[in-house]
Amino acid sequence: MSGNPESAQLRRGTLASVALLVVFLAAWEWGPGCLGIPPYIVPPMSAVAKEAVRMWNVSGLAMHTGVTAAEVLIGFLLGSLLGAFFGYILGMSPTAEVALSPYILALQIAPKVAFAPLFVLWMGFTIYPKILVAILIVFFPVLINVLTAVRNVDPDLINLARAFKASRAQIFWKIEFPASLPPLFAGLRIGSTLAVVGVVVGELVGGNLGLGYLLAFGEGQANTPMVFVAILMLTLVGGVAYLLVILAERRVLHYMPKNALSGF
Amino acid sequence: MTDTIRLEYRNVTMRFAQGAGHLTAVENVSLSVRDGEVVALIGPSGCGKSTLLNIGSGLAAPSAGDAFVDGERVEGPNAHVAFMLQKDLLLPWRTVIENVMFGVEIQRVPSAERRQRAQALLDNLKLSDFAGHYPHQLSGGMRQRVALARTLAVDPTVLLLDEPFSAVDAQTRMVLQRELAQTLKSAGKTALLITHDLLEAVTLSDRVLVMSPRPGRIVDEIAVDMPGRDDPLARRRHPRTGEYVNRLMQRLGIGHDGEPVPA
After folding, report:
1. What range does the domain containing B68 cover?
2. Do both A62 and A188 map to the same domain?
3. Residue B129 lies in a domain
4. What is the CATH number of the domain that holds B71?
5. Helices and strands: H and E segment counts in chain A
6. Residues A168 and A86 placed together within one structural domain of the fold
7. pLDDT tens profile B7-36
8. What count of CB pairs under 8 Å joins A to B?
9. Which residue does chain A place closest to B77, by CA atoms?
10. Which among A18, A209, A242, B216 is placed 20 to 30 Å from B176, CA to CA?
11. Which A positions 126-155 lie with beta carbon below 8 A of chain B?
12. CA-CA distances (angstroms) from residue A258 to A179, A185, A242, A253, B51?
């Protein structure tokens, strides 16, 4: 335990982090009052906590959180699968990339959240438009990372496999695919947080389910603590999604040197 | 060593398109390597040494001329040839033994035999303690040894070695050179060794071929008439080694003003 400079560093860092949290919570609780900020602008922490309990008991906070989490999960999974699929296709076929890249670029430049009202028009106040926005927003970082990874595989590695008479499929499964995994996971990390953004925007635009709906509802009621609760829960959903990606990454990329995997 | 010719280049010329015209990398190169022989190929940078390696391994087709391995014309990659580069090209997601098995796995050698062959090579190259390690846990010299084991695992007739030790430190290089020399000798392998290191060329080979600057042509051939091709460290101390290196330096125009002596 002691004597190891790394663990000492870790302990000091954790302590400082906890101390920072305490300071922040205290500042939140008493800061606004001291500065004369009214509670409808920044409600103190206790008011937000009380509102969270009320929402849990009365407003179905758990159910709304579950709906949002499910939309995030489905949107993230489908968006990642599609992104990875097209990333591999485009990475392996320069012709396909030349043909499709202008459209993909245009779609990437278009602000994806702006599609939310359109999707709601098409699919109504269901969970589908939210999932679709999430798919669209997750798609690109995953696609770009996979595409770049496949392109950047050392040509000498491919030649090595070719010299052993590897088939195209063997080159993909034994070299290109495993080589693409670290950048794929970097893309999934980004995607996991973006999926929440996509879902919330969809929920804000229309419907009566999910944390985005509670957010808009709270705003309409001028219920600032409710808005705070919704934001906190959204952060929690995003955090869990991110954590799951990291756990999967640690398992899959177990061969990587420890310091190459960041803790975030 | 027998008189059977294992590797042969016959009037090989390689041109690459460059802008409107083309660039001739190697021109009319003919050389042959007999069974069990190690031939070193030296020459200035960019003289097309590596192009010859790509042609021999079937990764590139020559613009003119032919390459033959075991009397068969090289039409593409084939199981008789394996190459090893300056880069170890180990796959970071495979353990040492899995990396050694990479080639035999692609060639669909049955899994039990794969493992057996890899294990034997790891034993020979003193790597058995590291079979389960990942490449990032190894030193540069050990990684290169794993690459050598992977090259030998497919049991090639001919090894094409492109500056295999130029990226490791001087002392490790000497150790690796000796291991390579012993392995080549005991397995009776035929090898073409491309190198920049004149001392390496002299101590590891039976013959040294000297190439000209681009377009690469073979301008000289020096038979290394010394004992101990399986012991490069002993050869280093041999009085004739200095003479050979000197002669190669002269041939390449190193340390002399002006152009190399014309052929």
Report:
1. 1-80+159-164+194-263
2. yes
3. no
4. 3.40.50.300
5. 11, 0
6. yes
7. 999 999 998 888 888 888 888 999 999 999
8. 54
9. A163
10. B216
11. 154
12. 17, 15, 19, 10, 38
ipTM for the complex? 0.85
Write out the two tokens for B50: 């590596």
- The string of pLDDT tens digits covering residues B95-118 is 999 999 999 999 888 989 999 999
Q: What is the pLDDT of residue B78?
A: 86
Q: Could you report the per-residue pLDDT of B151-180, keeping only the tens digit for each?
A: 999 989 999 999 888 888 888 889 889 989
- Domain count along chain B: 1
Residue span of the structural domain in which A104 resides? 42-260
Query: Would you call A165 and B107 a contact, using CB atoms and an 8 Å cutoff?
Result: yes
Give the one of B79, B82, B87 whose C-beta lies nearest to A156's C-beta.
B87
Q: According to the model, what pLDDT value does residue A258 have?
A: 67
Number of domains within chain A:
2
- Report the C-alpha gap between A238 and A200 in whole angstroms: 11
Is B29 part of any domain? yes
Chain B contact set for A155 (CB, 8 A): none
From B11, B41, B17, B40, select the one nearest B212 (Cα to Cα): B41
The nearest alpha carbon in chain B to A180 belongs to B93
Residues 9-38 of B with CB under 8 A from A: none
- Asked if the C-beta of A257 comes within 8 angstroms of chain B's C-beta atoms, the answer is yes
Among chain B residues, the shortest Cα distance to A171 is held by B106
What is the spatial distance between Cα A197 and Cα A33, in angstroms, rounded to a whole number? 32
Is residue B183 included in any domain, yes or no? no
pLDDT given at position B55: 92
Report the CATH number that the domain containing residue A235 is assigned in CATH: 1.10.3720.10
Q: Are both A4 and A87 inside the same structural domain?
A: no
Query: Can you point out the beta strands (E) in B93-206?
Result: 158-162, 190-194
